[in-house]
Amino acid sequence: MIGYRQLTSSERLALIRQDCTALDWDSIHVKKDFSPDNIYRVDFEEDIYLGSGLCLRDAWLCDVKVGNNSCIRNAGLVSRVAIGRDCRIERVGTVSCRSICYFGQGVRVAVLNEGGGREVVLHSGLTAQEAYIWALYRQDKELVSVLDQRADKLSRQSAKFVCKIGDGAVICDCAELTDVNVGAGCHIEGARRLVNGTVLGGENPAFVGSGVEAEDFIFADCSRVDGAASLLRCFVGQGCHIGRGFTATDSLFFANSSLENGEACSLFAGPFTVSHHKSTLLIAAMASFYNAGSASNQSNHNYKLGPIHQGVFSRGVKTASSSYVLWPARIGAFSIVVGHHESHPDTADFPFSYLLPDGRSARLMPGAVLRSAGLVRDGSKWLSRDARKGTKRDIVNPQVFSPYTMGGVLKALASLSAGKDYEGCGFTVRARDIGTGRKLYRLALDRYLGDVLAARMEACGADALAPAAVEFCGRSVSGTGAWVDLAGQIAPQEAVEIALETIKGGVDPAAVFAEMESLHADWEWNWVREVLVSEGALGTADDKAASQNVLDRRAAAARTLADLAADDAAKEFDDVFRISYGIDGDADVRDADFLSVRGCTPDTHPLIVDLRKK
């Protein structure tokens, strides 16, 4: 190897005096300025390449390259590993490469359906959007074949006979690392067993902590896996945290997901999927912007043909404590699931709803979540909680009101007629809930349409009311019609179909989805404009007056929704919530204790004050 020389006789003697051994001293190659001064009790086997400034003590090195200024101490076996500069490897059992290996690249993950059929193949550049079309568009066999072939090619390119430890990496107090690539700057501290995987480094390296066991995995940069987590055939994306004993099999975790204590199996965890409770099982499910209450559970089989069923929590769903859903089922966006459900509800066209148990069926309260202060918090918290740094691979659009959710609102308004119960798939809407639901949906729609119109007028001036001309992948796309949620990215179905054809033509999926996202605002305006025209709110003889009417309705709707959310938040200060305060005193002591703990009143709470101002 260029730049290396063999040991001098004095260097060899120095190493022998320092209790070092070698099967063949001539197989040790060193840099020109190599010094043996800080190398003690090291056994060398096969081809060894040593840099300068090294600290090697109490280690067994076999077919290893060690970069300048690196330190290896108390290492049972380091075999077939290329170690970069400024690395530290201490108190490890085994760091080795067994034969030609792929470092988790090419592993097939049976996501969403335990019975298989929706496999996504791991590679380091995997994104939520690519995984979504890979798992969910199985009817497009050409697309699946193209994605499979692309992943197989990337896997073959990654195949090596040695593991690589990147510059500045730290591996300490670990029992076993076998067939694992560790990126530059990564810290692996206290891991129990890592086999066939990649830990990505760079400017924002991943961290692997105490007690972790993982096999067939990829941990993205800016991710954290610790607290004795146990993972098998998993991808952990940027900004994710998996810890506190969480276990997962055949699961994908994308941007900023945080999962602790519980269990996942065949989970497609889109951006901001959150679960923090020991008793929670997430199985055969798709979710994003999701929050799982304690003891949230699902079942994916009916004891007939095995675990072949699956379910979808659309974006923003919350499951209350002790909730249960028997798959298959599909829950509408930003809905809340309470209680036990075995009726296979499909509420996809009824976003912002409560789903409650009602005998053998379920009761749906359409639009009820629109009154919630929690929904307001959801709309503002996600971007501020984005832990990713540098290049962000997953596209994350946290919009609460969008063509995707408002498309559901329009369908719900068309379906719900006042005065009679509505029978849906696995649920019922009671007549007394329909009037309230329609009013809430109309408020949300008026606010959203007005918000987009106002933004368009501010951005485009006199041309604001004209449709936007948009070309995507060489084809004209209006953005009207149905929209979908690609695991965090909201886009017109029309554009997605073009994107799939482009990807089948060999274009990198990440580039296609990035171009799609750059056109989001224009497509959104076209969708809103079509709705306004269809409702007679635009396209009249006097569009100026018509648009002002839309803005007036928006202001009124925003005020009403803000008041409803403020009133909902203020309930947290009602007497019932003071029951456990001031336990050894009277009502005055109770109120004083409550105020001291809460630190505010309904008139001074920041969220309520902000809502009252709107």
Q: Can you tell me about this structure?
A:
The protein is α/β, with parallel strands linked by helices and 614 residues long. The protein has 4 domains: 1-96, 3 Solenoid (UDP N-Acetylglucosamine Acyltransferase, domain 1); 110-279, UDP N-Acetylglucosamine Acyltransferase, domain 1 (3 Solenoid); 395-570, no CATH class; 574-614, no CATH class. Helices cover 29% and strands 29% of the residues. The strands form 6 sheets. The protein has a 30-stranded mixed beta sheet that branches. It has a 3-stranded parallel beta sheet with strand order 27-30-33, with no helix packed on it. Strands 8-9 form a two-stranded antiparallel ribbon. Strand 38 and strand 39 form a beta hairpin. Helix 5 runs antiparallel to helix 6, helix 6 packs across helix 10 (543-570) and helix 10 runs antiparallel to helix 12. It starts with a strand and ends with a helix. The mean pLDDT is 93.
